[in-house]
Amino acid sequence: MRLSLLQDLNAERAARRAAIVVTEIATGAQRLVRESDAPGDPLAEALGAAFRSGKSGMVKTESGEVFLNVHVPPARIVVIGAVHISQALAPMARLAGFDVEIVDPRTAFATPERFPDVALTAEWPEDVLKARPLDAYTALVAVTHDPKIDDLPLRAALSAGCFYVGALGSRKTHASRMTRLSESGVDGAPIEAPIGLDIGAATPAEIAVAVLGSIIRALRRRGMTADQARAA
Q1: Which of 38, 54, 69, 112 would suit a FRET pair with 86, their CA atoms being 20 to 30 Å apart?
Q2: From the CB of residue 71, how many other CB atoms can be counted at a distance below 10 Å?
Q3: Pfam family example for this protein (predicted)?
């Protein structure tokens, strides 16, 4: 691999952006494709599928075989709210391969006893997100029911292009939330609310399953057109 290509790849990885090294098998020629450039690439369809799956592999093209070496950041879930749903969601998400962080300024809820072996921060979300910004490979789950805690990270998630943004609450609660976000300059926000897949979930653990299912679906359908998503 050329030094310049390696440097470009490392820069993308350090910034938590996805990239693929395309290698022509016949010639050994290599090039780097950033995820933002993939839609205009001659291999757009194969690159899009590789970015979504995160798996490297061989692809046949008209000019010969190429190997796609995929580099995607580890997907993470930031949960705003140390509540019962979060207690169930955190271990499930870790089993599914996600990095998980729970953020809640309410120290009575955000305790190591309630969240063993989980990254837990008992600070206001705006302070946490300054140190660890959200990005396109982060899912944001807001479950406190408190606008003072939930609204800012929701705005931050939408601005950062998080692959999934969900918020707990009824349709009436969400309508009020959307009014607040609109008044703060956020319009047409793609927030999933009610949160999670529609599986009739009732208990905190069932809601956690529904939320994790929604997150996985959103991750694996990143960049799909509406027709592709329906066919998936």
Answers
A1: 54
A2: 18
A3: XdhC_C
